[in-house]
Design goal:
Blueprint (H helix, E strand, L loop, with lengths): L11 H7 L15 H20 L2 H14 L4 H13 L3 H10 L5 H20 L7 E6 L4 H22 L7 E6 L17 E2 L3 E4 L6 H20 L6 H12 L15 H5 L8 H21 L4 H12 L1 H14 L3 H8 L1
Parallel strand pairs: 1-2, 2-4
Antiparallel strand pairs: 3-4
Helix pairs in contact: 2-3, 3-4, 4-5, 4-6, 5-6, 7-8, 8-9, 9-11, 11-12, 11-14, 12-13
The structure holds zinc ion.
The site of zinc ion has 5 residues, from helix 8 and helix 9.
């Protein structure tokens, strides 16, 4: 949904991990047979895919495999350190970095940040969460952290049940203290939780009970969608299901004017600056997903089928998976709701 500016400078780690696994100085690539090269290229593209969507288990498996062919490749070694960090395996991350025989500022950063996170968890007396890898920004109190976590764990369980899907990787959660929401002023119109690969939640939003629930469910749904598929999910499917689950836009009137095109609905409209246009795209997204769910009665089975449809996106594409699960295409679906 509409997003507030990011509360936190984008972590440097994001940059480290988005750097693709491409430079293979240590590989002695030219000495490999054609078949070996093909295999390596295939593994590199899978690795990059897993890094992109935050599937750390898959990324670790592939990077370890690549390291067998190129044990001294510093790019791979840095990735492995970052992947351990992302899985909350801080001690292992530090231990691994100590075995490396080169220095790099990104590695120093990982060691520093790992130590800091261990310390913060210990100081707050917070146990590691079952489903979230925690980071803090701005020194939230233990009470705020515990309360936010309790709410998030409940939301996690219900969405997991709804889709009948248990993510393999922990979700990254940044709990931050947002100065804007400190104290007990009037309820804010918008509470700044976002999902940008990490779930960023202002801990003080818990004071605004009637607002935080839909916001958390909305953003957490995006996190689940990302965990369910490596595919680029059409924006209308992602925003549609998130709105259905957050249930905060149910009674909005149909926007006036011509419906948007399938292309406009498919491409990202999250940052659409024109409010009217954005509203329309969100409205049609929700309608289209609702329509799919209603065709299966709108109950638990309907959500599970939608989850399967998302999971088949990667192999079948948008219209392929819609055809398989609903015998329709995005174009026809759009026609049926307008
Ligand atoms: Zn959204």
């Amino acid at each position: 949904m509409a997003q507030k500016n990011k509360p936190e400078r984008i972590g440097r780690l994001v940059c480290i991990l988005l750097m693709c696994v491409v430079a293979f100085a240590g590989f002695r690539y030219y000495k490999k047979t054609v078949e070996e090269r093909l295999q390596i290229n295939q593994m590199i593209s899978v690795t990059n895919e897993c890094l992109r969507v935050g599937d750390w288990k898959c990324a670790e498996k592939n990077v370890r495999e690549l390291l067998k062919s190129a044990p001294n490749d510093t790019n791979l070694q840095m990735h492995l350190a970052g992947i351990l960090f992302e899985q909350e395996r801080y001690k292992e991350c530090i231990g691994y970095i100590e075995t490396l025989n080169f220095k790099h500022s990104d590695l120093d950063y990982l060691v520093e940040k790992s130590n800091l996170l261990e310390q913060e968890m210990a100081q707050l007396g917070v146990e590691k969460s079952m489903h979230f890898r925690l980071e803090f920004d701005g020194g939230p109190s233990k009470k705020d952290v515990m309360e936010a976590l309790a709410v998030l764990e409940v939301a996690y369980d219900s969405i997991s049940n709804l889709f009948d899907f248990m993510p393999e990787n922990k979700m990254s959660l940044v709990l931050y203290q947002d100065a804007e929401f400190q104290g007990t002023g009037p309820r804010p119109d918008w509470v700044g939780a976002v999902f940008d690969g990490k779930l960023r939640v202002p801990v003080n939003m818990m004071e605004y009970r009637e607002v935080y629930r839909p916001v958390l469910f909305h953003e957490l749904t995006h996190a689940f969608v990302r965990a369910m598929t490596h595919a680029n999910v059409p924006c209308w499917m992602n925003e549609g299901i998130a709105q259905v689950i957050d249930a905060s836009h149910n009674n909005e009137d149909r926007p006036t004017g011509a419906p948007p095109s399938v292309e406009a609905l498919e491409n990202s409209f999250v940052k659409e600056p024109n409010t009217e246009k954005a509203k329309k795209l969100y409205w049609y997204s929700r309608k289209m997903v609702e329509e799919l769910l209603q065709r299966d009665g709108g109950g638990a089975a309907a959500f599970r089928k939608f989850a399967k449809c998302l999971q088949d996106l990667q192999s079948l594409g948008m219209d392929g998976t819609l055809q398989k699960h609903y015998e329709t295409t995005a174009q026809n679906l759009l026609k049926s709701v307008r």
